[in-house]
């Protein structure tokens, strides 16, 4: 299996622009998670889905962030409009029960 | 809410030696998972080892083993015969088994492991 695939690996954008991060989970996994990693706050859960349904989005910072999972093999995390404080590494992970398997992450820089 | 604490921001060990990384956690649940993840400079998060709370036997994966003390809420990682490739950030993480919106991982702040050649 190719593992969890995230794109792009790096994203540089200007403040106010829309950013879309993409994730393809491992086939057969019914959970999908989005995390954010910063030096100040460490690794934080943003939102997760079970069977394509959002279960907990309490970690989403504000209304500028949205996530979708239209089918079992694809999810997006969108930031609109982006701000410099959104600069971070964003990880997608998938699992059944138990351990979660992470993608390589997207490093987002908002200038 | 659960919390995970890693009290060692940085550890250093000589190559081929053994090192133990500490982790404590706080929860009111009785059934859960615990994990250790490794994050090398490539930033990839790699699952190293997992432990289910209902299992008394400590998990082992090759040179990696854990010391799980449920009553003390302690979950340490032992790396034997340390290798240069073990150098990384190590994160301890907790996951509930009860679902109901609690499936996300709660991470500690991490321990930076340095391997001295």
Please explain how this structure is put together.
The complex is a heterodimer of chains A (111) and B (117). Chain A is mostly beta strands and 111 residues long. Helix content of chain A is 0%, strand content 56%. The model of chain A has no long low-confidence stretch (mean pLDDT 95). Chain B contains no helices and 12 strands. The radius of gyration of chain B is 14 Å and the shape is globular. The mean pLDDT of chain B is 94. Helices cover 0% and strands 51% of the residues of chain B. By secondary structure, chain B is mainly beta. Chain B has strands at residues 3-5, 10-14, 19-21, 24-26, 32-39, 46-52, 60-61, 64-69, 74-79, 88-96, 106-107, 111-116. The chains are: A mainly beta (111), B mainly beta (117). The A-B interface holds A 31, 33, 35, 42-43, 45, 48, 50, 55-56, 59, 89, 91, 93, 97-102, 104-105, 107 and B 33, 35, 37, 42-47, 50, 52, 91, 95, 97, 99, 101-110.
Give a concise summary.
The complex is a heterodimer of chains A (about 110) and B (about 120). Chain A is built from no helices and eleven strands.
